Amino acid sequence: MAQPPDVESLQLLVHVADQGSLTAAAAELGISQPSASKRLSRLERRLGLRLLDRTRRGSALTADGALVTGWARRVLDDLAALDDGAAALRRARTAQLSVAASLTVAEYLLPAWIGELRRADPDLHVGLQVTNSARVCELARHGEIDLGFIESPGRPSGLRSRAVAGDRLVLVAPPGHPWTRRRHPVDPAEVAGTPLISREAGSGTRQAAAQAFTAHGLHPVPPLLELGSSTAVRNAVVAGAGPALISELVVTADLAAGTLAEIEIAGLTVERSLRAVWRPGTEPAGPPAALLALARRPAGAA
């Protein structure tokens, strides 16, 4: 590409995906339908991909379009995070509670914990870093955070830790994938020998999956795709790129809606503890202790 896509085109693509209609997306953004159509055609030419199937009943994403839309959402989220971060720097506030969390915990669990913490203490300012589990542990070892949350298997060395929640990795594929038509569970060796969509090296999800296969004497082949977040993995599977082992937290709604299908692996389950970590020789007190207590509380408790 001569230059990256413009933000307005990415916003339009995401609105088309959400509204299911180019006309509705254009109205939502306050532009004319012809302008929106030209903008998306220009985006398709720039990327060299067909993103939409246009019919009289509306506009549907192609498989490539679904993948690009997932990435566009991440770009727009990152831009929003940039704006929020810049605003925080302008305020020059010092965080009273410094937290780092792996992506799955940060996306699906931590918002509720922090929200409840701030309802109890509205003046509390939380500084949050979202990264993979290996980096969270590194930050905790160097005392750069008060508390970290990881999804790696086992207890990390050189840190204090405590289990706060449980999670399970599930093998998922879109409906119609050959594995979904099997009458019996898929053999672990077949799964290990199949390139899957995967998180990047250093992520807790990838470590947990590798450890489970190693326990069965298996060594997974290199991934089909390596992506930087569980949401990106989920989007790629929904788009039909391939199957993946992914946190059940990420795909609960998809499994209930039938957007994705869970595939049982014969004799192999991948369960893990999500853990809080902090620097040795210390014990959480004040806001870190309150956050740890919230994290450890059973789901649904008042």
TrEMBL record:
Keywords annotated in UniProt: DNA-binding, Transcription, Transcription regulation
Residues forming coiled coils: none
InterPro entries: LysR_HTH_N, LysR_subst-bd, WH-like_DNA-bd_sf, WH_DNA-bd_sf
Pfam families noted in UniProt: HTH_1, LysR_substrate
HTH lysR-type domain: residues covered: 5-62
Similarity annotation: Belongs to the LysR transcriptional regulatory family.
PANTHER family membership: HTH-TYPE TRANSCRIPTIONAL REGULATOR, HTH-TYPE TRANSCRIPTIONAL REGULATOR CYSL
Protein name (Swiss-Prot/TrEMBL): LysR family transcriptional regulator
Protein species of origin: Actinomadura napierensis
